[in-house]
Design goal:
The chain has 2 domains: about 170 residues, P-loop containing nucleotide triphosphate hydrolases (Rossmann fold, 3-Layer(aba) Sandwich), CATH 3.40.50; about 70 residues, no CATH class. Helices cover about 35% and strands about 25% of the residues. The chain contains 9 helices and 10 strands. The strands form 2 sheets. The protein has a 6-stranded mixed beta sheet with strand order 6-7-8-3-9-10, sandwiched between helices. A 4-stranded antiparallel beta sheet has the order 2-1-4-5, covered by helices on one side. Helix 3 crosses helix 4, helix 3 runs parallel beside helix 5 and helix 5 packs parallel to helix 6. The chain is globular.
Length: about 250
């Protein structure tokens, strides 16, 4: 494990589905405490890239390093790698048969062997932090979409992961619920989390990202600070993408 290098290093990653190339030579480093936001049209490769980092998809070429460890090495223990990464998807993925506190503490108890009392103490503190301390005993079907997504984020950070992956976490939410979830991500950024997230929320990307990465057809077209990408993009492809979203420049 390399403490001085990037938390995540993606080197020349390619991924195909059949004859269709989805990732075509992705190179991306993410530093500790950095928030990198992936933007791009549907089908640009954002979600597939996140899935390769969490080993839900195997790369066809290239490699991915987590704190210096080559996690794409066939000898790597996928479960051990995933235990180091927190992941939140767009559709919550909470266990419906577990209440909120059990969802939050499951990995801490089962993967890391934390005693239930200690795991629940941490879990209740997390639920309080996200404004859901009164919902600890509720099952997912009794929670709103925004509440479910906040529980999913609490579950992802309960084990203090080295890296947090957020994949379109607001796209399944009603517009009025988006703000409460994004406020939580902003808090995580302020607390020093290392985050890679894919989003269609350009205003949020502008507000929270340290770096914005624009993908198109499985290639990184442009990467830079949000003020550069949104106000002064260098590439015509980036300008065209932002124009289609009616994002004002400058």
């Amino acid at each position: 494990m390399n403490e001085s290098g990037p938390v995540l290093a993606i080197e020349g990653v390619h991924k195909r589905f059949g004859e269709h190339p989805v990732l075509r030579g992705i190179d991306l480093d993410v530093a500790k405490h950095e928030v990198v936001v992936l933007i791009g049209a549907s089908g640009s490769g954002k979600s597939t890239l996140l899935k390769t980092v969490n080993l839900l998809e195997q790369v066809d070429d290239g490699r991915i390093l987590l704190a210096g460890d080559d996690i794409t090495d066939p000898r790597a223990d996928a479960d051990a790698v995933r235990a180091r990464i927190g992941v939140v998807f767009q559709h919550y993925n909470l266990f419906p048969h577990l209440n909120a506190i059990d969802n939050v503490t499951l990995a801490d108890r089962k993967v890391f062997g934390t005693p239930r009392a200690e795991a629940e103490r941490k879990g209740r503190a997390l639920l309080e932090r996200i404004g859901l301390s009164d919902k600890a005993g509720e099952y997912p079907d009794r929670l709103s979409g925004g509440q479910q997504q906040r529980v999913a984020i609490a579950r992802a950070i309960a084990t203090d992961p080295e890296l947090l992956l957020l994949d379109e976490i607001t796209s399944a939410l009603d517009p009025q619920l988006v703000g409460e979830v994004l406020d939580l991500v902003r808090e995580l950024k302020d607390a020093g989390s290392t985050i890679v997230m894919a989003t269609h929320e350009m205003s949020f990307a502008r507000a929270v990202a340290d770096r914005v990465v624009y993908l198109k057809d499985g290639v990184i077209i442009e990467s830079g600070p949000p003020e550069q990408i949104f106000a002064h993009p260098e590439r015509e492809e980036t300008r065209e993408f932002l124009r289609r979203l009616h994002t004002p420049f400058g």
